[in-house]
Write a structure and sequence with these properties.
By secondary structure, the chain is of the alpha/beta class. The chain has five helices and six strands; from the N terminus they run E-H-E-H-E-H-E-H-E-E-H. Bound molecules: riboflavin. The site of riboflavin has 15 residues, from strand 3.
Length: 161
């Protein structure tokens, strides 16, 4: 980080007191559960509490934006995470789902002023899904939780300016 810049905003990786909404797609639930586990573990390891996390399940990734949008309307959350797994080889319209879902999730963040974190893992095959949900390529749910914590705290900082 450039040391001569005086006013630098950067969200701390401290989840204490943060209220986080997580929306999970049940399609490919085997992998989604691992990503959710990674996210929960990461929130607690960064000082957050499981009681401050609300998890909502929707049928598939296509429904993630609706679930996130409904939860954020409550005004009760500092950040939301959308978790899904789309396996390209098994989903003819994978690219359509991904494009639509990522655009909608970004728009919900902009409309509500609450950061929305994208954790839809798209893979070519089941092996890659295994790798990204807790084996050799890490756990994308845990990474998403860190982004949610950083963005929630950054948003609080900006609002306090
Ligand atoms: N949802 C996912 O989260 N991941 C998928 O890989 C996935 N593949 C699908 C493949 C087909 C052919 C269809 C019809 C749906 C699929 N869905 C998938 C479910 C989708 O996100 C949504 O729940 C349903 O289309 C109902 O709106």
């Amino acid at each position: 980080m450039e040391k001569t810049v005086k006013n630098v905003l950067e969200g701390k990786l401290d989840a204490s007191g943060l209220k986080i909404a997580i929306v999970c797609a049940r399609f490919n639930e085997f992998f989604v559960s691992k990503l959710l586990g990674g996210a929960m573990d990461s929130i607690v390891r960064h000082g957050g509490s499981a009681e401050n996390v609300t998890v909502a399940w929707v049928p598939g990734s296509y429904e993630l934006p609706f679930g996130v949008s409904q939860l954020l309307k409550s005004g009760k959350f500092d950040a939301a995470i959308a978790i899904g797994v789309v396996i390209r080889g098994a989903t003819a319209h994978a690219d359509y789902i991904n494009g639509q879902v990522s655009k909608s999730l970004a728009q919900i963040g902009l409309d509500t002023g609450v950061p929305v974190i994208y954790s839809v893992v798209t893979t070519e095959n089941i092996e890659q899904a295994i790798e990204r949900s807790g084996t050799k390529a890490g756990n994308r749910g845990a990474d998403a939780a860190v982004s949610a914590i950083e963005m929630a705290n950054l948003t609080k900082q900006i609002r306090g300016l």
